[in-house]
């Protein structure tokens, strides 16, 4: 799979989970928050598509940050999420798993793109 498709998958999944949050709560705030994160992720995918090594490294770090943040929110929910309504932990947990899969996919791609050493 091409690396920019991995990053695009992360952005689209984050946005899809914002739509699920919209359906669950009836508020547009989840879509606004996850939509902005998805937009940044899709912009990163555009730079990765051009083949820049720095963009690939930045996308790998971005996926790692997403994994850490979504895992933290899944384990320690913020006060805005009602503890009586289950499901937000599953949403953030699934987002963390997708971000982790993208991270490992990009890490493998990053290793394959290593340049040969100079003599």
Report helical residue fraction: over 70%
**Strand count:** 0
Ranges where pLDDT stays below 50 over 5 or more residues in a row are none
Question: How large is the count of helical segments?
Answer: 4
- What is the end-to-end distance? 32 Å
Task: State mean pLDDT (0 to 100 scale).
Answer: 86
User: What string, H for helix and E for strand, traces the elements in order?
Assistant: HHHH
Q: What structural class results from the helix and strand content? A: mainly alpha
Assign an overall shape: elongated
Radius of gyration: 16 Å
Largest sheet report: none
Sheet-strand content, in percent, reads under 5%
What can you see in these coordinates?
The protein is an all-alpha fold. It is 77% helix and 0% strand. It is built from four helices and no strands. The radius of gyration is 16 Å and the shape is elongated. The mean pLDDT is 86.
Please describe the topology of this protein.
Layout (H helix, E strand, L loop, with lengths): L2 H23 L3 H21 L3 H23 L12 H25 L7
Helix pairs in contact: 1-2, 1-4, 2-3, 3-4
